[in-house]
Hints:
CATH topology of the largest domain: Multidrug-efflux Transporter Regulator, Chain: A, Domain 2
Largest sheet: 2 strands, antiparallel
Strand order of the largest sheet: 1-2
Organism: Microbulbifer okhotskensis
Structural class: mainly alpha
Keywords: DNA-binding
Low-confidence stretches: none
Domain HTH merR-type: 1-68
GO molecular function: DNA binding; DNA-binding transcription factor activity
Number of helices: 5
Protein name: MerR family transcriptional regulator
CATH class of the largest domain: Mainly Alpha
CATH architecture of the largest domain: Orthogonal Bundle
Distance between the termini: 85 Å
Radius of gyration: 25 Å
Number of strands: 4
Mean pLDDT: 91
Strand content: 5-15%
Amino acid sequence: xxxxxxxxxxxxxxxxxxxxxxxxxxxxxxxxxxxxxxxxxxxxxxxxxxxxxxxxxxxxxxxxxxxxxxxxxxxxxxxxxxxxxxxxxxxxxxxxxxxxxxxxxxxxxxxxxxxxxxxxxxxxx
DNA sequence: TTTCTAACA
DNA sequence: TGTTAGCA
Length: 125
């Protein structure tokens, strides 16, 4: 299929698809004349790239993960990478939870110091 | 109409 | 990334 259809199927812009090829994230598809012809595997890789992008994975990182072994995608490597991403996300979640508690402590400290906010303390001078 | 390359009010 | 120009 041509790039227009791939764009619709993956939700990626035609521009982005060509860019990923230029960056080496996908291998240059065969040409039918001067038009790029994509395969189902290309769609799958492109979908992966689309997902990873939303997950905050940089294109540079992806390039090291999507490796073509004799023209074939090493899905097992991608799978291992995905586990790493998941583990990192879990660690991030822990530090965020810790920060949430710290912020709540600050809020609590402020509340404790402003008990009389609604009725300003009377000066005792 | 769609795709291609190259380039940027 | 978008978008536009000028082709095929």
